[in-house]
Write a structure and sequence with these properties.
The complex is a heterodimer of chains A (about 270) and B (about 350).
Chain A (H helix, E strand, L loop, with lengths): L5 E10 L2 E11 L4 E5 L6 H8 L7 E6 L2 E2 L5 H7 L1 E3 L12 H7 L9 H6 L2 H20 L15 H14 L4 E5 L7 H18 L2 E5 L3 H7 L2 E6 L2 E6 L1 H6 L1 H12 L1 H10 L1
Parallel strand pairs in A: 3-8, 3-9, 6-7, 7-8
Antiparallel strand pairs in A: 1-2, 1-4, 4-5, 9-10
Chain B lengths: L2 H26 L5 H26 L7 H22 L9 H27 L4 H21 L26 H19 L2 H11 L1 H6 L4 H27 L9 H14 L4 H17 L6 H16 L12 H8 L27
The complex binds adenosine-5'-diphosphate and magnesium ion.
Chain lengths: ~270, ~350
């Protein structure tokens, strides 16, 4: 049997007494699209932070293609093959769209300091090749005409897409998307969905998706993990999740303060 | 290689040769007094220093205040080397130009400063914001005090407890023509550095260090690299200074000097090398031009700074680079290739304290 792309075993982290994530287990195989859902504050983003080396887990371990990732720094995890986007978009705001993507091709740049200082042929070759690769990625997201725009000047939906393009540029095996459709209008969401389909076909990568919009998750995910208060309350196929009483309770419970949630989201 | 890039390099070269030609004419026909030539020399040194500080303070966005300390390392290293060469009769005498010794010495000064840049940068760059400012300021002062006490640099030794003499008798072999081209090369190298993957990474880290890590950048490496490159050029500037001034006292490399250069960076625009060049010239020449008003000149200097900060909070040029090619295109009425790249002066997000990553 193939080793799974991602395997997390009993992953957990405690912040000063608060167990933000407890005994989190997940297995993702090549090409799979798995959803991670749960009410606001459930610990979804914290799971991503654990899986990308932002935080070190206080319990458990996780493996990428069978290699243990604990203790690695963020850039080491990324280089190993886990890339992500952020719930609150984090672009290089003052840089151009093209530059944003080129930066994430870090691993593909082979030229050294001397090549850069003296603009030796290798510098020109690498810059040209990677510029082409970056443009190819931008094409997938219909951003090629915006390549020279300053990232901050893009409309919101395109900023989200650019962030995904940048993550793809790292050449990852597993892509973590943190609420990619948040704040998007229905047209933008639809576009995003088709983009996700294209990158799945094109790159055959595995995706772990956090999403607040239940209907969206039900539509595209092959499997779903639900967490609440840091604890996994359900796992399974979308159909099973939709009927799971625990999940319904968690979401109904959260419904009461849906308005607060929206507030915090705005403020975030 | 891109055609447009070759073209603009050629245009820049032509402009520089014209400037250099004017300089030669002015000097050879004794139109410029020695005093003015001295100011031009100091301008060249300030330009290298301001650009080098712009790499850390502007592009990387880390307030490092130890620049003068590294300049001091470069100055003393270069001075010791030419002195040793003179006494050991290496590369001196008939037929060997002084410039050869000068170039070797300033290169060595830059290299030693860069080595210290690595040593200081690795621990210091773990900190940010005010903390980094304070620690680099502290390192700068340590360098100054150590130099002040080292016996072979004119000090009395550490046990004496009082500062020693200046290091004197340095060959004054900084030639304005040579220094002009050294300055041009330094600025050009810093420019190519910033316009490479290294510079891009450094600017990305200033924008958002978490996103930079998430894009696979080793931010510690790039921070230390920026600091090291900046220290190298500060060392070169120091080497030139030593051979212009002829005697060195550690006191001239204190924190006040460091802040002077940081002011140039802020004045010209954090993240604009051409801005630093302009600011270095203006802020070096201005106090001299106002010399006859003696006491009031520092007042005028401060007022100029305050006016710029009120009306151009991002500095004279912000992150914009002056380009001769662009100017020519404008005059000829040609369209610019990428109109969209008009840099919105996006507030470079200030000091970010520890935050929850969402
Ligand atoms: N660095 C941190 N320090 C303290 N508490 C944290 C930290 N990061 C996250 N938390 C807490 O962990 C819980 C889960 O947060 P988060 O993962 O952002 O939720 P979600 O993404 O599911 O909405 C929250 O209660 C949050 O306050
Ligand atoms: Mg979240």
């Amino acid at each position: 049997m193939n080793t799974p792309v991602l395997e997390a075993k009993h992953l957990g982290i405690t912040f000063g007494g608060l167990k933000a994530v407890d005994d989190f287990n997940i297995t993702i195989n090549e090409g799979e699209l798995v959803g991670l859902i749960g009410p606001n504050g459930a610990g979804k983003t914290t799971v991503f932070n654990l899986l990308t080396g932002v935080y070190q887990p206080t319990e458990g371990a996780f493996f990428l293609n069978g290699n243990k990732m604990n203790g690695k720094k963020m850039h080491e995890v990324v280089r190993a093959g886990i890339a992500r986007t952020f719930q609150n978009i984090r672009l290089f705001k003052t840089m151009t769209v093209l530059e944003n993507v080129k930066i994430a091709f870090e691993m593909d740049f082979k030229y050294k300091l001397a090549h850069a200082f003296f603009r030796l042929p290798k510098y020109w070759k690498d810059e040209k090749e990677i510029e082409e690769k970056a443009m190819d990625l931008l094409k997938i997201f219909n951003l090629e005409s915006k390549a020279d725009y300053i990232a901050n000047n893009l409309p919101y939906g395109q900023q989200r897409k650019l962030e995904i393009a940048r993550a793809l540029a790292t050449g990852m095996k597993l892509l973590l998307l943190d609420e990619p459709a948040a704040g998007m209008n229905p047209t933008e969401t639809a576009e995003l969905l088709s983009c996700i389909n294209v990158i799945r076909e094109r790159f055959g990568i595995a995706i772990l998706l956090i999403e607040h919009d239940m209907s969206l998750v039900m539509k595209i995910c092959e499997r779903i993990v639900v967490i609440d208060y840091g604890v996994t309350i359900a796992k399974g196929l979308p159909k099973e999740i939709a009927e799971n009483p625990k999940v319904i309770a968690a979401y109904l419970g959260a419904d009461d303060d849906l308005e607060d949630e929206e507030d915090t989201k705005e403020g975030a | 290689m891109k055609k447009s890039s070759i073209k603009s390099s050629l245009i820049n070269l032509v402009v520089l040769i014209i400037v250099f030609g004017i300089l030669i004419v002015l000097c050879e026909f004794d139109i410029l007094s020695n005093y003015i030539r001295g100011i031009l020399m100091v301008c060249c040194i300030s330009i290298i220093m301001a650009c080098s500080q712009n790499i850390t303070v502007g592009y990387l966005g880390q307030i490092a205040l130890g620049g003068a300390g590294f300049m001091g390392i470069g100055a003393y290293t270069a001075a010791i080397i030419t002195k040793a060469m003179a006494s050991a009769n290496i590369l001196v005498g008939e037929g060997v130009p002084d410039t050869l010794r000068f170039l070797i010495a300033i290169l060595a000064g830059g290299i030693l400063a860069a080595i210290f840049g690595v040593l200081v940068g690795i621990p210091a760059l773990r900190l940010r914001g005010d903390y980094l400012a304070i620690i680099t300021l502290g390192f700068g002062e340590i360098i100054r005090v150590v130099i002040q006490n080292l016996k072979f640099l004119g000090g009395k030794g550490f046990s004496e407890g009082s500062a020693g003499q200046a290091l004197v008798g340095i060959n004054r072999i900084s030639n304005l023509y040579v220094v002009f081209w050294v300055m041009v090369i330094c600025v050009a190298l810093m420019y190519t550095f910033i316009r490479s993957k290294y510079g891009r990474a450094i600017i990305a880290i200033r924008n958002d260090d978490i996103a930079a890590s998430a894009s696979g950048l080793n931010i510690t490496f790039y921070k230390v690299l920026a600091f090291t490159v900046s220290s190298f050029f500060a060392g070169v500037a120091g080497g030139i200074f030593a051979h212009y001034i002829g005697s060195l006292s550690a006191g001239s490399f204190g924190w006040l000097k460091s802040t002077e250069y940081v002011i140039m960076v802020v004045f010209g625009g954090m993240g604009s090398l051409t801005g630093s060049v302009i600011a270095a010239i203006v802020l070096t020449a201005l106090p001299e031009a106002l010399r006859e008003f003696s006491d009031y000149r520092m007042l005028a200097y401060s007022v100029a700074l305050i006016i710029v900060m009120i009306y151009r909070p991002t500095g004279l040029l912000g992150t914009y680079e002056v380009s001769v090619t662009r100017l020519i295109n404008k005059i000829l009425g040609k369209k610019e290739p990428s109109l969209h790249a008009i840099k919105a002066e996006v507030e470079a997000s200030g000091t970010k304290e520890e935050e929850v990553v969402k």
